[in-house]
Amino acid sequence: MYRVLIVDDEKMIRMGMKNAIDWKKLGVDDVFTAASGNEALKILKEEGPEIMVTDIQMTEMTGLELIKAARESVPELRVIVLTGFDNFEYARESLRLQVQDFFLKPIDEDDLFNAIEKQIKELKEQENKEQNQARVWRSQGSVVQMRLEQCMRNLVHTKADKEMQLYILQKDFQFDIKQKMSLILLEQGMYTEQQNDGKFRAMTVKNVCMSMVDSQNRGITFVDDDGTIAIVCFEKDDDDSVLEQIEELSDVLKDEFEYKPKITVGSAVQGFENLAISYNDARYLLEHEKKNIQDIIQTMGAQNKKKIFWEIYAELRNIMISNIGTPDYVLKAFNTFIKATESYNLSPSAVRRCCFEIASSLIFSYMEVSCEVEEGKLDALSKSLSSAGKEEACEITRMFIEQLIENDEEDVHYTISNARHYIDEHLAEDISVSSIAESLYITPNYFSRLFKRITGEGCNEYIVRKRIEKAKSLLETTSIKTGKIAMMVGYRDTNYFSLAFKKHTGKSPTKYREEMQNT
What we know:
The protein is of the alpha/beta class. It has 22 helices and eleven strands. The protein is elongated, with a radius of gyration of 29 Å. It folds into four domains: 106 residues, Response regulator (Rossmann fold, 3-Layer(aba) Sandwich); 155 residues, Reverse transcriptase/Diguanylate cyclase domain (Alpha-Beta Plaits); 106 residues, no CATH class; 78 residues, Arc Repressor Mutant, subunit A. The strands form two sheets. Strands 6, 7, 8, 9, 10 and 11 form a six-stranded mixed β-sheet that branches. A five-stranded parallel β-sheet has the order 2-1-3-4-5, with helices on both faces. Strand 3, helix 4 and strand 4 form a beta-alpha-beta unit.
């Protein structure tokens, strides 16, 4: 059943509309009336009607002002406007406020009946759409995902017919089963169920991984038989593509959870049929290299001194790129690079080449995040480096970096303000660090670090907090079922919603509603 609010400062008109319509026939359970905009806003807050019929010309607050205020608290409210004046500006403003219908007074009761019937029909269609979407989410987001994860477990643990698993991956999930890939494992230290909030944290870590990998079609995230999060990373032509992907994921996890997990990387294999080999490599490293000081541990054979340096260099360069929003990190990584050139006795020409590559990468990263870079700056650096010795080349490049990373804080805060607005506008959707960063045309790693630096909390933490705040408000002021509230605040899985809500409030959603509505 639905609820309707009629707003008009003339009692005869509002009561006339209330008494003229067969509300039961429309499926309307309650009809409220208000003589002013302030009274209407109070009813909207306390009773939650889905449809509002309002006059424009009223004392104290106009109908247009009422609609603006109502939209802020009840954005989904359906509005029918009535006016005694055939004024184009009224009509245009009503359209801008996205009202559903506009009528001149006096309105015929049949026209009003039909107008409200139309809104109720659209409400029902929206409800059916949400229910269907919920079913799709439940089926695709859980059943299909569970089937995919089981298929991956069967492959890495070799406990089912391999040919059948490959057939499922190719036919049902449309994967290229012959592509090159590596499997990585995340140590359970950051999401172990021994923690008080372990189950919720484990689901959150997995969701972040899926938003960074699966949603970008870069791989498959699943949980193995031991409860360890495993990720199949698809290789590209670039040999460093998987390592860069892992480093980006590692940095985002550190920003979001204040803990950098140890990640082990299995050997690259050709095709899903060989995935168990990569998995076993990663599992061996996870179990036998726990004291290794590196965050990302790879399988490696005998390596000469030169090869080790270039791996260190690549890692430091990626750290500088991925931390472009944190100047201290960039300079710290560059200082480490200088020490490495000394330790490995790099030639002057090699130092110059590395310095120019670092500067080029940083300029490109700044251009990607819309920071202005002075034209010709890289050309000037190239000329300065052309005949410089090792120490001079490093000093020239350090000065270049210091000038480059003097960001305009106003632009930074503008970016975060836009991010917060985007989150508030899309709470009910499947938003993530990656999707927000994409909407802002910046990289997830840069955005994640920037958000943490400016706001003091991880973006994922902020999203969860805002969702819980909205859920609390809905639980306190409405009788909407908990499952629907979960959907309205962006949780497809009601169990996950309950875990998140209890973690933040100490109570289940049902218990919270009972306590708040009985006070």
